[in-house]
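Example 3.2
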Amino acid sequence: VSPFQYVYAILFDQDGSAWLGTNGNGLIHLKIARKPGGGYLLQSFRQYLFNGTAGGPSNDIICSLAQGPSNCLWVGCRYGGLNLLDKSTARFRAFKAFSSENSLSHNDVLSLYGDTAGRLWIGTSYGLNWMEEKDAGKQEPVFHKLDSDDGLPNNTIHAITGTSDGDIWASTNKGLGHIDPRTMSILRFQEADGLQCSEFTDGAVWLSADSRIFFGSIYGFTWFPMQSIEG
C-alpha cells in the first residue's frame, strides 16, 4: 500500500468501498472491513495517479468526487479539469477548459454536485458550470456557465448542494448564491444578510435530514433552514 495523506474528498460506493481524493497522491479506491475480534482489515486498495494517459486522472490533486452515470465516477481535479472514470474499465476521460466553445470555464475544479434533474454542477476557480449528465458520452458536451456577471457573489465556487425542491446553493469567497435552475435566476447572500462569514471553504457543505443547510467558512460555519430563505 502506497502512503498518502491530506484527503480532500471521500465518497462511499454502493459496494461499501470508498473513493478518496487526495492532495498530491491521486485517486484512491479502498475497502475496509471490521475484523470479528476487533480492529479493521484492508480488503482492497488501488491508487490512480497521473501518468499522461487515460489510465490516470489529469492531476494528482483531487478536490471533489461525485457519482456519475452508468458505473462511472466524476473526479474534480485542481488545474486538471473534470474527469469521468469508468469504474469497469479503469479508464479516465478528461474534460478541459478552453478546448471548445462550450467547454469548462476553468480547469481548477473545486466542487461537484449531481442534482435530481440529471445535471452535474461543477464549481471552479472561475465560475459555476453545469452540464446534462446524459451528454457525458458526447465528443463535446455543452457546459453552461454562471459567474458574477450573472449574479453570483464571486467566481470562486467552494461547495455546492441542492434542496428537495431542486434549487441549488453554492458557496464562494464573498457569500452564498441561491440558484433557481428553472430560470437560472440567482440570489446573493452576504454578511449584511446575516451570514457568519462571507468567505467559505472547499467542500464544506451538509444538508441535514430536517432540511437545514450547513456551510463551512474560514471562521466557523453558517446554517439555516431552507424554508426561512425568501427572495
